[in-house]
Design a protein that fits this description.
CATH class of the largest domain: Alpha Beta
CATH superfamily of the largest domain: Translation initiation factor eif-2b, domain 2
Bound molecules: 5-S-methyl-1-O-phosphono-5-thio-D-ribulose
Number of strands: 16
Strand order of the largest sheet: 6-5-4-7-10-15-16
Number of helices: 11
Largest sheet: 7 strands, mixed
Mean pLDDT: 97
CATH topology of the largest domain: Rossmann fold
Strand content: 15-25%
Distance between the termini: 26 Å
Helix content: 40-55%
Structural class: alpha/beta
Number of domains: 2
Radius of gyration: 20 Å
Length: about 350
């Protein structure tokens, strides 16, 4: 995603169109950013955090001509609207809070407040790239040459500002010459793996196969996977992980097969204010995401059927072998090690 300084707009890839088409959206208002997040034109926890931060900058920019009071009012409205766009990824609230705090000054210079909002949003975006690359280095050190790793959803450059979390680790291992083989979960219902992760890996030149989500257990059980890497939308104080639906089943199968299961997260994804995963709100998305699927040109389900569509699940901390963060590898007991990691932040 990119800020356009001349027109003061936000430009980002419309992920709904990939891999068929690389289409860019140019957004002018915070309401447009909220819609892009809700409708998943932009998705992935760090990416929606950064986009929301730029949404705050748009709110300030659009109100600037009307004075400082109007700028503050628009920032406040943007904070509430963007914060309600998707409930599970804590990076969203985290980024909004940062911009709000950065603009909480006594000045009544509207242009100065708008500049502060933009600077903080840009800082969030720049930091994201740098810390993802650090996580990638820590994570890549866990991968031995030629290993097969399994990946869920899309956690790459598309899901962040650049590099990615779990997919960044894989990309780094590839750049270091470790030649990882990747099994890409297709990730029903929205197919972020088949569409987005496959699109990214193709460009990086990483060797991979797409597998149906149902096949992951088979590959783990038969010793064909050495490590699993996933990202997260929120990590509770005890180490429970909210991530894309299907992560929990994957973690269970990995544990049963004695395959290490790593969760790659920036510290902005760790939420010490929730004690355990049961307190994390799970987004339920429209049934159409499950039902509106064509196979050989025909609908897969009979007309009139209903569906349930939770977008995330909770993986209990005891199934997580380690977290990879921008400060290094974090091991159990997570209730202590995560608190220690975030001390002073
Ligand atoms: O619903 P999505 O596509 O936004 O879900 C994305 C995920 O679950 C990712 O694993 C998570 O955000 C981490 S991405 C760096």
């Amino acid at each position: 995603m990119e800020w356009l300084p001349e027109t003061r707009q936000l430009k980002l890839i419309d992920q709904r169109e990939l891999p068929a088409e690389l289409r860019w959206l140019v957004l002018s208002t915070y309401e447009e950013v909220a819609t892009a997040i809700r409708e998943m034109a932009v998705r992935g926890a760090p990416a929606i955090g950064a986009a929301a931060a730029f949404g705050m900058a748009l709110a300030a920019a659009r109100a600037e001509a009307h004075g400082a009071v109007a700028v503050r009012a628009n920032i406040s409205a943007a904070h509430d609207t963007l914060g309600a766009a998707r409930p599970t990824a804590i990076n969203l609230a985290w980024a909004l809070k940062r911009v709000r705090q950065a603009t909480a000054t006594a000045t009544d210079d509207a242009a100065a407040i708008a500049q502060m909002a933009l600077q903080e949003a840009q800082r969030i975006a720049d930091e994201d790239v740098a810390l993802n690359e650090r996580m990638a280095e820590f994570g890549a050190a866990l991968i031995q040459p030629g290993e097969t790793v399994l990946h869920h959803c899309n956690t790459g450059a598309l899901a962040t500002v650049d590099w990615g979390t779990a997919l960044g680790v894989i990309r780094k291992a590839h750049e270091l010459g470790k030649r990882p083989q990747v099994l890409v979960d297709e990730t029903r219902p929205r197919l972020q793996g088949a569409k987005l992760t496959a699109w990214e890996l193709q460009q990086y030149g990483v060797s991979f196969d797409v597998i149906s989500d149902n096949a992951a257990g088979f590959f783990l059980q038969t010793g064909q996977v050495q490590r699993v890497f996933v990202g997260a939308d929120r990590v509770a104080a005890n180490g429970d992980v909210a991530n894309k639906i299907g992560t929990y089943m994957l973690a269970l199968a990995a544990r049963e097969s004695n395959v290490p299961f790593y969760v790659v997260v920036p510290t902005s994804t760790i939420d010490l204010s929730v004690a355990s995963g049961s307190e994390i709100p799970i987004e339920e998305r429209p049934a159409g995401e499950v039902l509106d699927l064509l196979h050989e040109g025909r609908p897969v389900t009979p007309a009139g059927v209903t569906a349930r569509n939770p977008a995330f699940d909770i993986t209990p901390a005891h199934l997580v072998s380690a977290f990879v963060t921008e400060f290094g590898i974090v091991e159990p007991p997570y209730i202590e090690t995560l608190a220690e990691l975030l001390k002073g932040q």
